[in-house]
Amino acid sequence: MTDAACHRLYDSGVSNRVEREALTGGAIPLAVYGLGKMGLPLAAVFADTGVRVTGVDVDPEVVASVSAGDAHVDEPGLDPLVTDQVDAGRLSATTDGPAAAANATVHVVIVPTLVGDDHEPDLSTVEAVLEDIAAGLDPGDLVVLESTVPPRTARDVVTPTLESATGLDRGSFGVAVCPERTSSGTALRDIRGQYPKVVGGIDAASTRAASTLYEPVNAAGVTTVADATTAEAVKVFEGIYRDVNIALANELARTSDDLEISVLEAIETANQLPVCDIHDPGPGVGGHCIPNYPHFLMGQIDVDTPLTATARRVNDRMPAVVVDRLGRELDAVGTDLENATVAVLGLTYRPGIPELRHAPALDVVDRLRARGASVVATDPLVDPDDLGISPLPMAGLPDADLDAIVVVTPHTAFRTIDWEAVDPLVVLDGRNALDLEGTHHHVLTLGDGSREGTNRHSLRARLDAR
Ligand SMILES: NC(=O)C1=CN([C@@H]2O[C@H](COP(=O)(O)OP(=O)(O)OC[C@H]3O[C@@H](n4cnc5c(N)ncnc54)[C@H](O)[C@@H]3O)[C@@H](O)[C@H]2O)C=CC1
Ligand SMILES: CC(=O)N[C@@H]1[C@@H](OP(=O)(O)OP(=O)(O)OC[C@H]2O[C@@H](n3ccc(=O)[nH]c3=O)[C@H](O)[C@@H]2O)O[C@H](C(=O)O)[C@@H](O)[C@@H]1O
User: Fold this and answer.
1) Is the ipTM of this complex over 0.90?
2) Which of 316, 345, 325 is nearest to 436 (CA)?
3) I need a surface site. Which of 10, 97, 315, 323 has the fewest CB within 10 A?
4) Homologous superfamily in CATH for domain 316-464
5) Domain ranges of the chain
6) In what order do the strands lie in the sheet with 341-345?
7) Does the keyword Transferase apply (predicted)?
8) Can you give the pLDDT of all 466 residues of the chain as single tens digits?
């Protein structure tokens, strides 16, 4: 192949420099399957480096909005980037996966990978995309998996599926795993190089091709690992580390009453050592990532994983821990949870992100109701009414007839609440996020060492003052 004819990355036969120039000059067409929270930022960033990108999504509204130059995902900096790239003709969108596959020589898969009710990984969206890709896969094409998947998916699912659907042999096309290491709210920054891009292929040529693909995108560089399974494991391990670490923090927080110390203070002080990085206790672990990723390992291999499994159970128990604690504290001030009206502050799984998947607040609401409490809720990003929960606007807090408030997700908007204007209440600040020092409320947080019936104040101010 001559340099001028470089239209692919896998086994192109030309130098890395020529491949890169062809890629960023728009000569190597790329399809991104899945234009969601991570897929759209990724597609836009690729286009911004000069790559010609077709985004594929099954949702016609998503495709219509991207085609009009609008970002349907609320991510800092994304909307103008999408507008610019669509205007420049580098980014387009379609619902026609097979047609996009036929035109592309690099295929990037970034659709959701979920876990079913039986805790089994559900790869059906990835498999649906593979069907589209197979319809247009040619020798020399490269398939990149950005979706988080159980280790061995590229080797044992993606490659054989493409082989049998196309009749092509392994080695005539490339498959690499390049996991998305980004976070909602900082997606563009993360994709462009907050951390190195991890790349592992099913063969050396796939690893090389995927490295070339990401070098122009990621300023922090590319970390190549031994193979695709290692790359898959890196991402799953990162998630398990977080889940296990949070479970440790939650377990330690539950010891606080018995030890009669503030575990939060102890954790913060222990973390002064560089070898110690205990995470924050809280009312539970939500989102579609961290609660799911452990299941990508547990039960998927012939080795038992008791620590990972226990961490999942510890974290899943936290909404019950919160409701039990609230029940005891209300008891101590002479109120039955059964007859109480409780306001839940923050429903989304983390602050600033309008996502409810596995949100611990929903479990807290269910458990409060199961104990007979009336529940109202406030969230600046979602309407509680849509979830069958009575809404309480933040401005209505002072006039509401409440017995308790549980802060599950500390949106920044809650910092503006005038707590002195709210009648004295039991406030369970599940994230130790509010500074209620000196207010007339009966304030407690997980891990604060409160004894039942005593009035403890948030440690936040003291810890922040350090
Ligand atoms: N959201 C996050 O914070 C992070 C997500 N990830 C991983 O990135 C992957 C994608 O996640 P998100 O972007 O958050 O998902 P998302 O749910 O925001 O978006 C997925 C998009 O894929 C589309 N889609 C579904 N089936 C399709 C198909 N067959 N063909 C084409 N499009 C299809 C949906 O319509 C949707 O627009 C997942 O594997 C996730 O684990 C990784 C790091 C962070
Ligand atoms: C540190 C970080 O930002 N991890 C990311 C994680 O994103 P995610 O949006 O799920 O947020 P997260 O901060 O891990 O929080 C998950 C859940 O855990 C809870 N949580 C988090 C940290 C902590 O110390 N204690 C705690 O209880 C949060 O409240 C939330 O309910 O999962 C993403 C993913 O893997 O998909 C990953 O790319 C991101 O890097």
Assistant:
1) yes
2) 345
3) 97
4) NAD(P)-binding Rossmann-like Domain (3.40.50.720)
5) 3-226, 237-315, 316-464
6) 390-391, 374-378, 341-345, 404-407, 426-429, 442-444
7) no
8) 444 468 999 988 999 999 999 999 999 999 999 999 999 999 999 999 999 999 999 999 999 999 999 999 999 999 999 999 999 999 999 999 999 999 999 999 999 998 998 999 999 999 999 999 999 999 999 999 999 999 999 999 999 999 999 999 999 999 999 999 999 999 999 999 999 999 999 999 999 999 999 999 999 999 999 999 999 999 999 999 999 999 999 999 999 878 989 999 999 999 999 999 999 999 999 999 999 999 999 989 999 999 999 999 999 999 999 999 999 999 988 999 999 999 999 999 999 999 999 999 999 999 999 999 999 999 999 999 999 999 999 999 999 999 999 999 999 999 999 999 999 999 999 998 888 888 899 898 998 876 544 444 555 555 566 6
Does residue 289 have an active-site annotation? yes
CATH topology classification for 237-315: N-(1-d-carboxylethyl)-l-norvaline Dehydrogenase; domain 2 (1.10.1040)
Query: In Å, what is the CA distance from 305 to each residue of 236, 312, 314?
Result: 13, 11, 15
Of residues 172, 179, 171, 37, the one with CA closest to residue 108: 179
Question: Quick check: helix, strand or coil at residue 231?
Answer: helix
Tell whether ligand 2 has an atom less than 6 A from the beta carbon of residue 181: yes
Q: How many residues does the chain have?
A: 466
Q: Name the closest-CA residue to atom 25, ligand 1.
A: 111
> Ligand 2 in contact with 328 (CB < 6 A)?
no
Assessment of whether the complete model's pTM goes beyond 0.80: yes
Residue nearest to atom 19 of ligand 2 (CA): 285
65 CB within 6 A, ligand 1: no
Same fold, 3-226 and 316-464: yes
235 included as an active-site residue: yes
Q: How far apart are CA 209 and CA 211, in angstroms?
A: 5
Q: Could you tell me which residues are beta bridge partners of residue 342? A: 375, 404
Ligand 2 centroid to residue 101 C-alpha, Å = 33
Spell out the CATH class of 3-226: alpha beta
28 lines ligand 2 (CB under 6 A): no
What residues have CB less than 8 Å from 313, skipping those under 6 apart?
Answer: none
Residues 29 and 66 sit within 8 Å (Cβ to Cβ): no
CA dist., res. 133 & res. 126, Å (int):
10
**Ligand lying nearest the CA atom of residue 179:** 1
